[in-house]
TrEMBL record:
<feature type="compositionally biased region" description="Acidic residues">
    <location>
        <begin position="285"/>
        <end position="294"/>
    </location>
</feature>
<dbReference type="Pfam" id="PF03133">
    <property type="entry name" value="TTL"/>
</dbReference>
<feature type="transmembrane region" description="Helical">
    <location>
        <begin position="246"/>
        <end position="271"/>
    </location>
</feature>
<dbReference type="InterPro" id="IPR036523">
    <property type="entry name" value="SurE-like_sf"/>
</dbReference>
<feature type="region of interest" description="Disordered">
    <location>
        <begin position="853"/>
        <end position="876"/>
    </location>
</feature>
<keyword id="KW-0472">Membrane</keyword>
<dbReference type="InterPro" id="IPR002828">
    <property type="entry name" value="SurE-like_Pase/nucleotidase"/>
</dbReference>
<keyword id="KW-0443">Lipid metabolism</keyword>
<feature type="domain" description="ATP-grasp">
    <location>
        <begin position="1023"/>
        <end position="1071"/>
    </location>
</feature>
<dbReference type="GO" id="GO:0140042">
    <property type="term" value="P:lipid droplet formation"/>
</dbReference>
<dbReference type="GO" id="GO:0005789">
    <property type="term" value="C:endoplasmic reticulum membrane"/>
</dbReference>
<feature type="transmembrane region" description="Helical">
    <location>
        <begin position="42"/>
        <end position="69"/>
    </location>
</feature>
<feature type="compositionally biased region" description="Basic and acidic residues">
    <location>
        <begin position="313"/>
        <end position="322"/>
    </location>
</feature>
<keyword id="KW-0436">Ligase</keyword>
<keyword id="KW-0067">ATP-binding</keyword>
<feature type="region of interest" description="Disordered">
    <location>
        <begin position="280"/>
        <end position="363"/>
    </location>
</feature>
<dbReference type="GO" id="GO:0000932">
    <property type="term" value="C:P-body"/>
</dbReference>
Length: 1098
């Protein structure tokens, strides 16, 4: 027995089996850690992490590729244009798909393949007209266009490269073999840049879908082919991604992958933490104990023959560690804050729907916001819950208790209710808005609000009850309305009162529609308060909650008298159903307002056991709205219900006795305090841009509201009043022509009878022939115009200008001091280009021969002095070619001119600004400029050099280095010398009178005698720069008229005095009268010199 016991003890504690178990345990311990559930979880996590990493890496690459394809537009888009030839200019169209990207600059060019035929070479300059259209362009025929869909327009000149006959023959001989075998053809490809960095606004409607190309020329042209090319000009990120494709792929894919991994890891961590926090500790403990028991059982099964007892001790140790990990609980908190804004108000607001609620009171917050935005002080007292259908009632015997509502975000139910007002119990008063909520009726709210709250804000001017959730038209609604009851209470308290109700047809409370209705309601309230009729106690206003309600009519109405005709307005209800006034009002209004039917009963009775004589029932208010709508349909037009049905606003004047006030009928005209005039100011010269914008602000500020837009497509309505002050090429004349009463532009379409020198000469000549006594005879030198392509054809050109030829022939026999000098002017040039002096035919021929040859001035410019015209009279005319100018005119040179001793006897001319408006009034701006030549005057025959120094004869500041900034080059006319030898003391006033008379006469000559070349519009005006030269006898001679004059010549010193005041007078005389904001009587510095009624009116 003892041996047996010993053997057992040895086997259990110290025998061979025990040693084997210890050895196996030591060998298997590393492997147990590798196959434990903790390790398996780690393996799984690593696999999931690696898989997610690779997946997100692939997704990042794909995402970048998609982003690249969508973000980087097609670099080059081109379309071949199939031109159409006929009686009109060649033209063609092309369409696009979706190749363009918004806000991406594009360079647009046109490529023309032209044969070098004699007819093409004779064409000379021609114009290329390109127009881009948005989708749904009505027509792109050459005689029609749709200005509403026009996105961009450009018109650029082009010309075949000139080659002298000798060079042309040599070139053809060299290329003859290529021409013979057909490898080349006698053609030239012109690349003409049409638009630079043109961008398209966001939206498919603002991207081109089609284009129209037109080749404009006075002569027929032959064209092989035409192509329009769009080249994307990348900047910023697009440039980097396009130029550095691989680098951008690595960078942006890595960024996307990093962000994705961080987001995924954070999400994984949060989800794990939440799951662990939500799991009860007991379950965790049981799960871990179960895991340990399973592990212990596995070990026991493995060594059950050895009877090892060491493992349970280890399991117990792991259990202790697990419990230690469980001893750190998760913590969290949350908080809510309410904020608002308070403003003092002279108007009291209540309703019968309670505080803001998307269920039954969705409009009151918007109305209060609109009233405050309009500058009114608003004090708000509302029922604490839904109080509809309660009329003008008070609750007797009940203690009325207030709570305090702090409104939150507009159209959101995030306002907060408090038992005490701001500043109570040490709470800081942040000055936010705070409304009073009363646990009573709307009428009680009015009483309490008038006499017990907001006394520090002063007396209430008007009580506004509403807006009600649904209409309050006809007697059936009005007699039960808590909204009208609140206004009635205000009326019997001696206050002007308005009941406001919104009739809706959709449960979808669109904030935009609500905002429009609220702003419209504010205008109606303001009108009624300003035009309150004696004898009216209150108004019932019903506004249909429909888009565009502010544009519909507002009518005075009578209240339709009607009755319930379909039986009871109550229905049996389930006694177990809870009473929720807000839900009931929502159910009634939703069904009634939108369908006009009675809501279906929820349940009928709750019958007790037995058969009592009277059945036990509960009832709910459920009026049949069909009774109201039927009475409106059957009743006469013009009542309040009919007006709202027609989506107009009804205003019903009432007495406090529920009777409408007779005698008020007709439409109420609501007008804005200031009309809105849209303006597009788009000038290339910042000098002009700033002055025009400032003039609009100063002169329209009191009469109208000026709203700047960049394009006419931004107009809210195509017929909205709009004023364009733009460069001539960018003016939308189609908009001007189609809307003569609302669209005003700063230029006439056709006025070359005045601004083209040879046309002006013909205009004056024709007028003088018909009116021999015209003042123009003594203030405009007769001119002779001719056309010339090359100097060798001068003899033929002078055959028609026989007076000029006769004068030049006589000059050959006269001494120099008696020769008649002439001034040559290109008919189509400006800024003084191409002007020369001559007295003989040889001198004239030398001028044209100079223009026939290429100019070397550019190569010699480095060695020339800075003095203008010191080396050559052509220094200002670099690049002029006779064949490009073509039209020329010659006038007798005015000698001697008036010279002022204070200006070193320098010659000067007078720049006068003339404003022409409509059809036709002409004004002369009294502030004029005197522009002086660079050098002292010397008569042409007195100069030693055969080549005349134009710096002595030309007064255009463009010839002078430094221009108008040179001291004394530009002076105010009225500041010139007061005393001039040979002239009277009032010589400046006399010259001004001459200028006014000549200006009025020349505009009348163009308007009546050259109507084809001067076409006036009633909705256009234009400022012309008119130049006069005064001779030594004090006579003012008309030189020329300039459209879009260079205002920059005025300089900075006279900028405000002359140009600034000019634009302000322009707004007063031309812009404001057109929009009905004043009269064009020419007050101020604008003198009316012509008032012609040519029968063209807006």
């Amino acid at each position: 027995m003892a041996d047996s016991e010993y053997t057992d003890d040895e086997t259990e504690y110290g025998g061979p089996s025990h040693s084997q178990a210890v050895l196996m345990d030591a060998l298997l311990t590393p492997f147990r850690a590798l196959v434990s559930k903790t390790a398996l979880r780690i393996y799984l996590s690593i696999i999931l992490f690696s898989g997610a990493t690779l997946l997100l890496l692939g997704v990042s690459g794909i995402a970048y590729a998609i982003f690249y394809l969508r973000f980087i537009p097609t670099v080059g888009v081109d379309r071949e244009i199939h031109l159409q030839f006929g009686d009109l200019n060649p033209w063609g169209t092309a369409s696009f798909e979706s190749e363009f990207v918004s806000s991406q600059p594009y360079d647009v060019s046109v490529s023309l393949d032209l044969p070098r035929t004699p007819s093409n070479l004779d064409v000379g300059n021609f114009m290329i007209d390109l127009t881009l259209y948005a989708p749904e362009t009505a027509s792109v025929l050459p005689t029609t266009s749709n200005s509403q869909n026009k996105i961009s327009h450009s018109c650029r000149p082009a010309i075949l490269t000139y080659a002298s006959p000798l060079v042309d023959i040599a070139r053809r001989l060299v290329r003859l073999p290529l021409y013979v075998v057909g490898w080349r053809r006698e053609a030239e490809t012109l690349e003409v840049s049409m638009m630079e960095r043109v961008e398209f606004a966001r939206g498919t409607q603002n991207r081109p879908q089609s284009l129209r190309l037109e080749i404009q020329s006075d002569r027929k042209m032959q064209i092989y082919s035409a192509r329009v090319e769009f080249r994307a000009r990348f900047t910023g990120l697009r440039w980097f991604m396009y130029r550095w494709k691989l680098t951008s792929f690595v960078v942006f894919s890595s960024i996307f992958w990093t962000v994705s991994m961080a987001s995924a890891s954070l999400t994984w961590f949060v989800l794990t933490w939440i799951m662990q926090s939500d799991t009860p500790k007991g379950e965790i403990k049981e799960e871990e104990e179960e895991e340990e028991e399973e592990f212990s059982k596995a070990i026991k099964d493995e060594f059950e023959d050895s009877g090892s007892s060491s493992e349970p001790v280890k399991v117990k140790k792991e259990e202790t560690e697990t419990r230690l990990l469980q001893s750190y609980p998760a913590e969290g908190d949350n908080a809510g804050l309410g904020s608002g804004r308070e403003s003092a108000e002279a108007r009291g607001v209540t309703n019968d729907d309670g505080p803001p609620s998307n269920q039954s009171s969705p409009y009151v917050h918007s109305l209060v916001h609109s009233l405050q935005a309009a500058g009114h002080t608003v004090s708000v007292v509302l029922p604490h819950q839904q109080r509809s259908w309660i009329g003008k009632a008070h609750i007797v015997g009940a203690s009325v208790k207030p709570t305090y509502f702090r409104p939150g975000t507009l159209h959101q139910e995030d306002g907060t209710i408090h038992h005490l007002p701001r500043g109570s119990n040490g709470e800081p008063d942040d000055g936010g808005d705070e409304w009073i909520l009363i646990d009573s009726t709307p009428a009680s709210c009015v009483q309490i609000g008038l006499y017990h709250y907001f006394q520090e804000r002063g007396p209430i001017d008007v009580v506004v009850s509403g807006p009600n959730y649904g209409r309050n038209t006809t007697a059936l609604f009005a007699l039960s309305s808590g909204t009208i009851g609140g206004a009635m209470e205000g009326a019997v308290c001696g206050k002007r009162s308005i009941a406001l109700s919104y009739a809706f047809s959709s449960r979808n409370h669109d904030p935009v529609i609500i905002a429009e209705a609220s702003q419209h309601s504010v205008r109606v309230i303001e009108y009624l308060c300003a035009n309150w009729t004696d004898g009216v106690d209150l108004y019932s206003v019903n506004v249909p909650l429909e888009p565009g309600v502010s544009q519909n009519q507002v009518l005075y109405t009578e209240m339709l008298e009607n009755k319930w005709t379909s039986g009871s307005c109550f229905e049996p209800a389930d006694p177990a159903t809870g009473d929720d006034p807000e839900l009931e009002e929502q159910r009634l209004r939703d069904v009634g307002e939108m369908t006009g039917k009675k809501p279906e009963p929820e349940i009928t009775t709750d019958e007790p056991t037995g058969q009592p004589r009277i059945k036990h029932k509960h009832f709910k208010w459920a009026p049949n709205f069909q009774d109201v709508y039927r009475s409106v349909e059957e009743g006469p037009a013009g009542n309040d219900g009919w007006v709202v049905k027609e989506q107009m606003t009804s205003v019903t004047p009432l007495k406090a006795s529920f009777k409408h006030m007779p005698g008020l009928t007709g439409e109420i005209k609501l007008s804005d305090k200031k009309s809105t005039i849209f303006s597009v100011v788009d000038c290339d010269d910042p000098y002009v841009q700033a002055l025009v914008e400032r003039a609009l602000t100063r002169r329209l500020g009191d009469a109208a509201r000026s709203q700047r837009i960049s394009e006419l497509s931004e107009l809210p309505d195509t017929s909205a009043p709009v004023f364009q002050y733009r460069e001539y090429e960018r003016l939308d004349f189609e908009h001007v022509m189609s809307r003569p009463s609302t669209s005003l532009a700063n230029a006439y379409i056709i006025r070359k009878a005045l601004i083209r020198k040879h046309y002006l000469s013909n205009t004056v000549a024709n007028w003088i022939s018909k009116h021999p006594d015209s003042i123009l005879r003594n203030h405009f030198k007769p001119a002779f115009d001719f056309e010339l392509d090359y100097s060798e054809f001068l003899d033929e050109a002078l055959l028609e200008a026989y007076e000029l030829r006769e004068s030049l022939e006589k000059n050959e026999e006269r001494p120099d001091s008696e020769k008649e000098w002439w001034i040559l002017k290109p008919g189509m040039s400006d800024r003084g280009q191409g002007i020369r002096l001559f007295s003989t035919e040889d001198q004239l021929r030398e001028i044209f021969e100079e223009w026939d040859e290429p100019s070397d001035i550019e190569d010699e410019s480095d060695s020339e002095n800075a003095t203008p015209q010191s080396a050559s009279p052509a220094a200002h005319d670099e690049g002029l070619v006779t064949s490009q100018l073509r039209h020329f005119m010659a006038q007798p040179y005015i000698d001697p001119p008036l010279l002022l001793p204070s200006s070193s006897n320098r010659k000067f001319h007078i720049r006068t600004y003339v404003l022409a408006t409509g059809a036709l009034k002409v004004y002369v701006f009294k502030e004029m400029l005197a522009l002086f030549a660079a050098k002292s005057y010397c008569a042409p025959h007195e100069e030693e050099d055969e080549v005349k120094d134009l710096a002595r004869h030309l007064t255009n500041t463009c010839f002078q280095e430094g221009g108008s900034s040179n001291e004394g080059s530009v002076r105010r006319f009225w500041d010139l010398d007061h005393h001039v030898p040979g002239l009277s003391a009032d010589w400046k006033e006399k010259i001004f009178e001459q200028i006014c008379a000549v200006t009025g006469e020349v505009f009348e000559a163009a308007a009546r005698g050259m109507m084809v070349h001067f076409q006036m519009l009633p909705n256009a005006f234009e400022i012309f720069g008119v130049d006069f030269l005064v001779d030594a006898d004090g006579n003012a001679w008309l030189l020329e008229l300039n459209a879009f004059p260079d205002f920059g010549q005025t300089g900075e010193d006279l900028k405000e005095v002359v140009v600034g005041r000019l634009f302000e007078e322009m707004i007063d005389v031309a812009v404001k009268p057109f929009f009905g904001l004043g009269s064009d009587d020419g007050k101020g510095d604008m003198k009316l010199v012509a008032d012609l009624d040519l029968g063209r009116h807006a």
